[in-house]
Specification:
This protein is an alpha/beta fold. The chain contains 10 helices and 8 strands.
Length: 305
């Protein structure tokens, strides 16, 4: 009961934060905010499945949903933000917001990353992915499709097709690490960035809301093992940057620790930064005490390969 309460409280806090921001922004000021956040450039919306989805979660997505509005079930798509044109093709990162596979925290774990990545000459591909609603394959299939689309447009968008990574926070971190550990060769990301991620489906240490929304309350041990990503790491798993706070009382830090250890056991380059405070869900919020330190660490890491 305690874990369920924490999960609901977290969703409520995230939802209230987004609602408060949206309430203060009319349509015109939203555009001004987005222009500032994107810094540069070319901003475009790309439909994820123009010819229909390969699988279903039972939801009909017939209308797009703008950022800052309802974020429970959003039409799957990409917000592509390209950095200033340069002679050298840029890296790109597919950003997967968190929300316990029950919603998408599109602000502090999505849109608010565009400014940072624009400065770093990295294309930001913010993904609004479909929620499972009983089909555990749905979210990952959307990430794979996002990577395919970026590769297809790599030359046009001046992106290095061999430097497309994934990023996720909380349950979005579980999704990103799922893609990093389960992907076929043609859609395997080049790197992964994980913020306070859910990694394991072990009921002793997972976030139960994420567990239940993805694979169900009565998931078999085999299904829990399949989505316990610390058990799915191989030598092919891409390099990782992991961020968490020591006082996170929503997703136990053992999730990140186990994943980091598995990566090192398989010879995969990995950096893990554990900050003293911050709790869960700080994202790219400037109000977080260690935001500047974290951004510098992430910048250094991105420029190391």
């Amino acid at each position: 009961m305690k874990k369920i309460f924490v999960f609901c409280t977290t969703l409520l806090m995230v939802g209230m934060a987004q609602a408060q921001l949206s309430a203060n922004l009319n349509e015109e000021s939203w555009q001004q905010y987005l222009n500032k956040a994107y810094v540069t450039g070319n901003v475009m919306d790309v439909e994820l499945w123009p010819n229909g989805t390969p699988n279903s979660n039972g939801v009909v997505y017939d209308q797009p949903v703008k950022a800052g509005q309802g974020t429970i079930d959003m039409k799957p798509g990409l917000k592509v933000v390209l950095p200033r044109k340069s002679d050298k093709p840029s890296k790109a990162v597919v950003v997967c917001p968190g929300g316990g596979y029950a919603m998408l925290a599109t602000m502090h774990e999505g849109i608010m990353w565009n400014f940072f990545f624009g400065r770093e000459n990295v294309a930001t591909i913010m993904l609004t992915y479909r929620l499972p609603h009983g089909n555990h394959e749905v979210p990952a299939s959307d990430v794979y499709q996002a990577i395919r689309i970026v590769k297809e447009h790599a030359k046009e968008w001046n992106i290095d097709p061999n430097q497309i990574g994934v990023m996720g926070s909380s349950a979005g971190g579980h999704l990103a690490s799922t893609v990093a550990t389960h992907a076929a060769d043609d859609v395997r990301p080049a790197f992964q960035i994980l913020f306070y991620p859910v990694i394991t489906m072990d009921k002793r240490y997972t976030h139960m809301g994420t567990h239940d929304n993805l694979i169900g309350k009565d998931a078999t041990p085999e299904m829990e093992t399949l989505y316990s990503n610390e058990k799915q790491v191989t030598e092919k798993t891409p390099r990782a940057f992991i961020v968490l706070a020591d006082d996170d009382d929503v997703v136990p830090s053992i999730n990140s620790a186990w994943y980091f250890a598995a990566l090192k056991d398989h010879g995969v380059p990995a950096n893990m930064h554990v900050y003293p405070t911050g709790g869960h869900g700080f994202g790219n919020s400037q109000s977080w005490k260690y935001n500047a330190d974290m951004l510098q660490n992430l910048s250094d890491w991105l420029n190391s390969f």
